[in-house]
Amino acid sequence: MNELPNCPKCNSPYTYQDGNLLVCPECGHEWSPETEASEEAEGLVVRDANNNILHDGDSVTIIKDLKVKGSASDLKMGTRVKNIRLVEGDHNIDCKIDGFGAMKLKSEFVKKLS
């Protein structure tokens, strides 16, 4: 019998195949096994709050007001950030924001602009 991989989102072992997709019955996550294999081969994979893959040079929008240490003002929801760079670590987006300067953001607080 073919061993299916655990769910990449919740690590559930109860995944099943539905056509070309793999599905997790516990969290409802669906993914393509080919996409997963190609992402692992790439190395660094960063996803936004909507689970879209981010790349260097993308533009993103901040989805939540963020407090900035050492600054009197906050980054407001809806702030656009252009030309991001992906880096390793907890704060995996390196960027420059108008009015704030160089900053590192967590990918879970941004969404990709199409």
Automatic annotation (TrEMBL):
<dbReference type="InterPro" id="IPR013987">
    <property type="entry name" value="YjdM_N"/>
</dbReference>
<feature type="domain" description="Protein YjdM N-terminal">
    <location>
        <begin position="3"/>
        <end position="32"/>
    </location>
</feature>
<dbReference type="Pfam" id="PF08274">
    <property type="entry name" value="Zn_Ribbon_YjdM"/>
</dbReference>
<protein>
    <submittedName>
        <fullName>Alkylphosphonate utilization protein</fullName>
    </submittedName>
</protein>
<feature type="domain" description="Protein YjdM C-terminal">
    <location>
        <begin position="46"/>
        <end position="112"/>
    </location>
</feature>
<dbReference type="InterPro" id="IPR004624">
    <property type="entry name" value="YjdM"/>
</dbReference>
<dbReference type="InterPro" id="IPR013988">
    <property type="entry name" value="YjdM_C"/>
</dbReference>
<dbReference type="Pfam" id="PF03831">
    <property type="entry name" value="YjdM"/>
</dbReference>
<comment type="similarity">
    <text>Belongs to the YjdM family.</text>
</comment>
